[in-house]
Amino acid sequence: MLQVIGAFEKLKYMVECTSKSNGNKEILPIFLDVEPDDVKLKTNLYRKTLSKCQKSEAKSWEKALIEVGKIKGWNLNKDESQVDLIQSVIEAVLDKLNDIYKNVTEHLVGVDDRVEAIIKILDVESDSVKFLAIHGMGGVGKTTLAKVIFNQLSSRFQGCNFLSDVRESSEQHGLVHLQKQLLSEFHDSRFVDKIKEVDDGINMIKRVLHNKKISHCS
């Protein structure tokens, strides 16, 4: 019973972290030797254990179980084989990571030392705000260098955003468009779409990103 309760508590923590992540974290459930209906508490598999726990704790665990049970995942009982399931999970995770990580040319030469030096300057463990400009002639690899650094550091932040071609985008679409692009990674699109003027965007950026540890490249 203690092992099951420990699993309930971990699941509750995962749900709480996901709900506070503004969409930057996601739960991908694998139903191993259980059915989604068991997790949704439509059967007695977990209800018997929950009935023996304190009401306040059981309530929070029930909520977490039901929420995860609603998420479409993988069911080992029904999938053709464990090998197929593992391959499916890997593909799904890589697909989601590709939405965050930036594609760079493989086997880059001469960037490791530059990346290490820039990461050292950024001092990501610090609580201070850092601005770093990478400058040089066109075609020397500034954007590629920024992408490599972004990929290495993004997991250390609550949220990340990479805006490319900022000058061209601002000239063609205006600053409000850029503000919406920036905020789209951290805030509900229903509120972001309400930005009509630059001042609106500035105020929302201050409100949404205040006290958050974020990484932004442009």
Tell me what the structure shows.
- 52% of the residues lie in helices and 6% in strands.
- The protein is mainly alpha-helical and 218 residues long.
- The protein has two domains: 2-97, Rossmann fold (3-Layer(aba) Sandwich), CATH 3.40.50; 127-217, no CATH class.
- It has a two-stranded parallel sheet with strand order 1-2. The chain has a two-stranded parallel ribbon with strand order 3-4.
- Helix 1 (2-19) crosses helix 4 (55-69).
- It starts with a helix and ends with a strand.
Topology:
Layout: H1 2-19, E1 30-31, H2 36-39, H3 47-51, H4 55-69, E2 74-75, H5 82-97, H6 112-122, H7 142-153, E3 159-162, H8 166-173, H9 175-183, H10 189-192, H11 198-209, E4 214-217
Parallel strand pairs: 1-2, 3-4
> What is the averaged pLDDT score?
79
Largest sheet: 2 strands, parallel
CATH topology of the largest domain: Rossmann fold
Element string (H = helix, E = strand): HEHHHEHHHEHHHHE
> Any idea what the shape is?
elongated
CATH architecture of the largest domain: 3-Layer(aba) Sandwich
**Share of helical residues:** 40-55%
Note the quaternary state here: single chain
- CATH superfamily assignment of the largest domain? Toll/interleukin-1 receptor homology (TIR) domain
As residue ranges, the low-confidence spans are none
For the secondary structure, the number of strands is: 4
The radius of gyration computed from the alpha-carbon positions, rounded to a whole number of angstroms, is 22 Å
Q: Provide the structure class.
A: mainly alpha
Share in β-strands: 5-15%
CATH class of the largest domain: Alpha Beta
Give the helix tally: 11
Integer count of domains: 2
